[in-house]
Amino acid sequence: MSFNATPDASNSLMEHAAQSADAVVHSTQRLANQAVDGVSHSLQAAGRQVRDGAHLASDKTVAYIREQPVKSVLIAAATGAALVALAHLAVRPGNPQ
Asked: What is the CA radius of gyration of the chain?
């Protein structure tokens, strides 16, 4: 079985195939753009939630410091001392064996 197409039929077939491929490419680009837009909107919403949470935590911290200033200073000093102790342990040379 052989296919003997005229040049016009071959050109028409190739043009149709090219148009179909072009349509697939445009459709794929559109879907990819929609997916990227969806991810972008999700990330923006997550960023807003994190920012709002940080503002809330900051406000609560400031309120606690105003209500308990001495206790807040003692907590900060203890935290600083613990960090210095950890840093000292981290840079201390290993014990010889």
From this structure: 33
Tell me what pLDDT residue 44 has: 97
Please give, one letter per residue, the 3-state secondary structure of the chain.
Answer: CCCCCCHHHHHHHHHHHHHHHHHHHHHHHHHHHHHHHHHHHHHHHHHHHHHHHHHHHHHHHHHHHHHCHHHHHHHHHHHHHHHHHHHHHHHCCCCCC
Domain extent at residue 71: 7-91
State pTM to two decimals.
0.51
The answer as to whether 33 is a domain residue is yes
Give how many domains the chain has, as a whole number: 1
Residue 26 tokens read as: 């445009």
The answer to whether position 29 is within a domain reads yes
Q: Is residue 97 part of a domain?
A: no
The predicted-structure confidence for 22-47, as pLDDT tens digits, reads as follows 999 999 999 999 999 999 999 999 99
Inside any domain, residue 96 = no
